[in-house]
Each structure stands twice: as structure tokens, then as C-alpha cells.
Amino acid sequence: MSIRECISIHVGQAGVQTGNACWELFCLEHGVGPDGAFLEGPTEPNSREDPFNTFFNTGSSGRHVPRALYVDLEPTVVDEVRVGRYRGLFHPEQLISGKEDAANNYARGHYTKAYHEQLTVLEITSACFEPLNQMVKCDPRHGKYMACCLLYRGDVVPKDVNAAIANIKTRRSVQFVDWCPTGFKRNMTDGTFPLCAYVCVMTVVLSPLC
């Protein structure tokens, strides 16, 4: 019977802490010590007959490394693995962490910590005006804006923001009422945070009223 490989991916604080408990148990069950070497007593299993290699990969040095990844946006919990009792069990590349967490907010983690880190100011500003990214029941492309406030946070400069807004103003899908042609207010918060942007205080007037 062929042996399948099982890769465990532990994400976030709960995932990492659960992973710690699981791999401590796996090591006890398979006779593997905190350094990845076999404890005295158990003999090395046959890779073709024993499910040992489903969970562990045996390196050229004879150490047994879990088939696992630990991932978290901030390093605190992953650091517990890096300095804990089983720190010698994992390869450093298996322990992945960022610098700031998402404060238990899925949307913040998904959109501002991961997705937006790779986008420019223009791309983020454009994304703010995509109908699928807005929490409104109407399609703004079928009406006109009365006012719009753009809030930026992170590594952003006024020059890039002004250029992005100028680009938005040239699009037919984003139009303002005649009696408020400028329409935009902006605010920027400096800091070492990943770049992100939000649209708020946005009012859309449907075409018949314009």
C-alpha cells in the first residue's frame, strides 16, 4: 500500500497553538524527540509499511521534520515555536510570520494586510470605486456622487494620492453632480503600516435626481 503525505497548515493564533499541541502528541506517538531524532527504544519505521512518513519527512542527516507550516500575521505566537521546547524540530522556513496582526478582524487581515501590500496607490484608489468593494445596494456607475472622503493609511505621499484622484476624475464611471464638481476630501495617516485606503461619507445620487 502506498503512503500518502499529509501537510498540516496552521494559521493564526488558534491554529498555531493547536498545531503545537498536535505535533507534541505526534512526536510522542512516533517516538520522535524535540530535536527531530528518534528517542531510545523505538526502531526506525519502514517507509513503505508504516504511516510515519505521512507526517514526517526524513532529511539526509537523519532528522525527522514535520510536514507542516505555521503562518500568522504577527510574530508573537510563532515565536513561541521558535524558542520553545520543540524549536529544533522545525525548519526556520516552516515558521512564517508578519509584523502586525489583524486584531481578530478577518476583513482587515484579508484586504489590508495581505492583498493591499502588493498594490500601488492608484490601484488601491481604483479598487475603492469598484461596485463589488462597496457596501451599497445600488450601482454607483448608474448615478453621480455628491461627495467622497478617501482615507489612506501607511506609506503614502500626497503626490501619489493627488495623481490617483486625478485619474479617477477622468473616468466616465465616476461622476459628480454639477453643483459639487470637486467632490473629494482626503486624509492620510503616516506610519509603518501596510498601505491601504477606505472610502467613507460617500453619497450616491441616482440619475433621475441629477
From TrEMBL:
One of its GO terms (molecular function) is GTP binding. Keywords: Cytoplasm, GTP-binding, Hydrolase, Microtubule, Nucleotide-binding. Pfam families: Tubulin_C. The keyword Manganese does not apply. One of its GO terms (biological process) is microtubule-based process. InterPro entries: Alpha_tubulin (IPR002452), Tub_FtsZ_C (IPR008280), Tubulin (IPR000217), Tubulin/FtsZ-like_C (IPR037103), Tubulin/FtsZ_2-layer-sand-dom (IPR018316), Tubulin/FtsZ_GTPase_sf (IPR036525). It is found in: Cytoplasm. Its main location: cytoplasm. It comes from the Eukaryota. Belongs to the tubulin family. This is Tubulin/FtsZ 2-layer sandwich domain-containing protein. It comes from Periophthalmus magnuspinnatus.
